[in-house]
Structures are given as C-alpha cells and as structure tokens.
Specification:
By secondary structure, the chain is mainly alpha-helical. It has a single domain, classed as Vanadium-containing Chloroperoxidase, domain 1. The chain contains nine helices and no strands. Helix 1 packs antiparallel against helix 8 and helix 4 runs parallel beside helix 6. The longest helix is centred in the N-terminal third of the chain and has 28 residues. The N terminus is likely disordered.
Length: about 220
Amino acid sequence: MSAPPQSRSIARRATPWAVVGLVLIAGFGAYLRFAHAGPFAIDEWWHGVAGVSDGSVARAIAVFMAEAGSGIGAAACTAIATALLLALRRPRDAASVATAMLIGIAASETIKALVLRPRPWEQLYHAAGSSYPSGHSMGAAALAVSLALIAAESRRLSRTATRWAWVIAAAWIVTMMWSRTALHVHWLSDTVAGALLGICAAVLARRLWERPPASMSAAPPRLDA
C-alpha cells in the first residue's frame, strides 16, 4: 500500500513559517542597510577558515557550483525540471518549481538593490552586485526544496526515497553555500539568508499550486434527489 502524500501538509504547515522567514530576511537586510553593512564576527571567522587554492579539487567543485548556480545555470536547471514534470503530466508541480524560482529571484534582486551590502575582500571568483542575500544559495534552495516537496507528495516513492530526496536537497544547498563563501564572494550570513529565502519561496509556491482538498473540489450534492 502506497504512503499518503505528505507535501500538501508540509507546505500548509510551513506557510506561516515561510512568511516569518521573509520578514526576518527583510528585517536583517534593513539592519545591514542602516546600522551595520560590514561583516559580523562569524562572517570574518568563516572567511578566514573557508577558501580554496588554485588547482585544487575543492576549487574545481566550488567553481562548478558557481557556474551551475549562475543566472544561466539556474534557468537551465529550472527549465529542465519544469519540462520533465510537464512530460510526466504534472503541470501543477511544474508551475510550483517555476513560480518558486520567480518569487526567489524577484525577492533576492529587490533586497540586493535596497541593502547594497559590500562583498568580501580577496575574491577568488568574479562576482558583481551587492552581497546580501546570496542569489546562488537562494536558487539552489528554491529548486532543491521544490523538488523535495514534489517527491514527498508522490505516491510512487517510498518513505526511504523521500528521505533521500530531502538529504540530497540539503546537501546541494549546503554545498552551494560553501562554494560561495569558499570563493570569497559572499559572507556566511549572506548565504544563510539566501538559502532561507529560497526555502520560503519554495514553500509559498507549493502552497499556491497545491491541489484543493477533495472535499472542496467535489461537486455539491443535489437537493432535488
């Protein structure tokens, strides 16, 4: 017997937390804009700890993640995921993935333009624009969490497969966050905010496109029977 879908309840329960997350991201951005735009102690510590040397495997991985999470890379990944879901005749799932990315990009670019936080020094990879929040981390989280929510709803996947979907999603997000700080193009706090923004966008998009309960979608009973 297949397990009942889980992502609807996850998205529904997580929606208030997603709204709180957006408020926290905006509030922290306001603090950076008007009170303290520079790095915090933990940012400076991690900036000194993280880093990759030329020619190393770690640098190659970090650069690969940077390319995969760039505007073109994120758009390509989103388009592929959307196309596959449409091919599987899951238009609502495809719409939720695309919507999550659109929400995340719109919010990220708006906050960047308002906060104008300087990027770290000694950058090891070219990056333009302001630092807060990390757009790469946002995109990774928006896509990974969107797909994990879809996996959690699927009746064809076991609970073990669903757990692995969440593990892979978390690993992808953390690796992207690490790559942005290892290349010294974002502070640690930028990546945390970006990942949180992507998660919030995925939850809100999923809630927007999830199917209404069967009791609501069923036709009303006839009164003249």
